[in-house]
């Protein structure tokens, strides 16, 4: 039974004030982490998503991220494409260059993906054409990693694992080259009806492969989550982070925690179509060598689910990702 006292639409809201980044590692109490973890698991087991308020992430930093990404995405396409990589998941993704849902046209958005290799190779970031991008990206990734570790401790304690830091031990290598966690800076430009294809979405329906995703979004809206067989709007909640569980956490929890499909649709209201939508997603993944049981497969048109068919019962998370990457243009 869902016990949250507050909701945004169908999404439970958890107050993380006693465990957020405003509380130091030395001051945070085990009891508070445990209690918050129970609320997170309760929400994840019901709808797969939860809003986290009083999380300790400074809103001024998010405004700085928005400013610098606006400057980058408004550059000429040729400049941005200098940071496109065909050999890795790192870098710029142009408009209509991904497709997460086979039955739909390509996703109507741009993005920039930043993985753990950036801490050894910061020159991969577009500092020369967008001053400030490098330092802000590194700072934001570090903060997301710190908060993720706190969240994983909460969940791990509340799951009553033999070792209370079990989940963090599966994520020892965050911000390194042998962990596929990444920050994805999404930019949804105003809708141009002259180039928008019929049936287009901004982000196709999918489930996340990893453990948890931290989503920072503006108030434009458009995100929907599958619930009871239909897609339901997720209303933005100011100063809150939207968390969702991925397939890896579903597996680790023995199926207790739900990994739910979600998508971003084009707004029906013309006034919202004229707005730019910003979102920043930090995908926390297990280390490459962590063993995962692939999630149950449903026979539908969602790209990552279809690409997980015929997999062995157990594999490393790296193998799971590689299998998916090889069958889709949308690795995250």
From TrEMBL:
Keyword field contains Iron: yes
Q: Does the keyword Cell wall biogenesis/degradation apply?
A: no
Question: Organism's domain of life?
Answer: Eukaryota
User: Which parts of the sequence belong to the Fe2OG dioxygenase domain?
Assistant: 177-286
Q: Which UniProt keywords apply?
A: Iron, Metal-binding, Oxidoreductase
Transmembrane domains' residue ranges: none
Sequence similarity:
Belongs to the iron/ascorbate-dependent oxidoreductase family.
The protein's name is Fe2OG dioxygenase domain-containing protein
Q: Organism, per UniProt?
A: Clavelina lepadiformis
Q: What is the lineage of its organism?
A: Eukaryota, Metazoa, Chordata, Tunicata, Ascidiacea
């Amino acid at each position: 039974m869902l016990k949250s006292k507050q909701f945004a639409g169908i999404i439970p809201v958890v107050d993380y004030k006693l465990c957020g980044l405003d509380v130091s590692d030395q001051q945070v109490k085990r009891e508070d982490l445990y209690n918050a973890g129970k609320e997170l698991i309760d929400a994840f087991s019901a709808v797969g998503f939860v809003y986290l308020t009083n999380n300790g992430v400074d809103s001024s930093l998010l405004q700085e991220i928005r400013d610098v990404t606006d400057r980058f995405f408004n550059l000429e396409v040729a400049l941005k494409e200098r940071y496109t990589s065909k050999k890795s998941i790192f870098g710029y993704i142009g408009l209509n260059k991904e497709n997460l849902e086979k039955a739909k046209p390509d996703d109507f958005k741009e993005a920039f993906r930043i993985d753990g290799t950036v801490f050894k190779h910061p020159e991969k970031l577009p500092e020369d054409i967008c001053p400030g991008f490098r330092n802000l990206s590194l700072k934001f990734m570090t903060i997301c990693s710190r908060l993720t570790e706190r969240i994983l401790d909460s969940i791990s304690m509340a799951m009553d694992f033999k070792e209370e830091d079990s989940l963090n031990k599966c994520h020892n290598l965050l911000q390194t080259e042998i962990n596929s966690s990444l920050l994805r800076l999404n930019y949804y430009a105003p809708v141009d009806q002259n180039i928008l294809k019929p049936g287009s979405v901004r982000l196709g329906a999918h489930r996340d492969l990893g453990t948890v995703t931290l989503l920072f979004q503006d108030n434009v809206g458009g995100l929907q989550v599958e619930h009871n067989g239909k897609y339901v709007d997720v209303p933005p909640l100011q100063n809150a982070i939207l968390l969702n569980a991925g397939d890896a956490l579903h597996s680790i929890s023995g199926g207790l925690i739900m990994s739910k499909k979600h998508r971003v649709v084009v707004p029906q209201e013309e006034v919202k179509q004229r707005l730019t939508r910003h979102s920043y997603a930090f995908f926390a993944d297990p280390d490459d060598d962590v063993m995962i049981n692939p999630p149950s497969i449903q026979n539908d048109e969602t790209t990552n689910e279809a690409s997980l068919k015929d997999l062995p019962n157990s594999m490393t998370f790296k193998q799971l990702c590689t299998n998916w990457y090889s069958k889709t243009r949308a690795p995250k």
